[in-house]
TrEMBL record:
Residues 49-123 form the Transcription elongation factor GreA/GreB C-terminal domain. It comes from Hydrogenophaga crocea. Pfam families: GreA_GreB. Keywords: Elongation factor, Protein biosynthesis. This is Transcription elongation factor GreAB.
Length: 137
């Protein structure tokens, strides 16, 4: 499996600050590399195709055209708002961490509970708070 490259990710300043706070509280130790390596931009300047916190994405399991036929709708959220059964996935989960900061068309990669490599292609960004003018969510 290709290692995750956090250097190719983009975070908003607000998302970075909030995740850094979780890391300092000991809740988000796994996001350290992402916080240290990702490009950080002001919320008003993030590209509209970047997955940010509370973005709603459409993903196909697998990579590219070989992915699943049925897309899944996921919303990236903080742990307190997570409800995996309804598609609200925590940024601290392997899937959430794999999605944050990627762009439409890119492939998120993570390890499943069984240790096997998993992947999902971001087919569409259905909602991004910043693109709708919400810079504080």
């Amino acid at each position: 499996m290709t290692p995750i490259s956090f250097a190719e990710r983009t975070l908003t300043e607000l998302d970075h600050v909030r995740l850094e706070r979780l890391r300092r509280q000991g809740e988000a130790l796994r996001v350290g590399d992402l916080l240290d390596l990702a490009s950080v931009v002001p919320s008003r300047e993030v590209a509209p195709d970047v997955v940010t916190m509370y973005s709603q994405v459409l993903v196909h399991e697998g990579e590219g055209e070989g992915g699943s036929a049925e897309p899944r709708r996921l919303t990236l959220c903080y742990p307190a708002d997570a409800e995996p059964g309804t598609g609200f996935i925590s940024v601290l989960s392997p899937v959430g961490l794999a999605l944050l900061g990627l762009r439409v068309g890119e492939v998120a990669r993570w390890s499943g509970p069984d240790g096997q490599p998993r992947a999902a292609t971001i087919a569409a960004l259905l909602f991004q708070p910043e693109a709708s003018g919400d810079y504080t969510t």
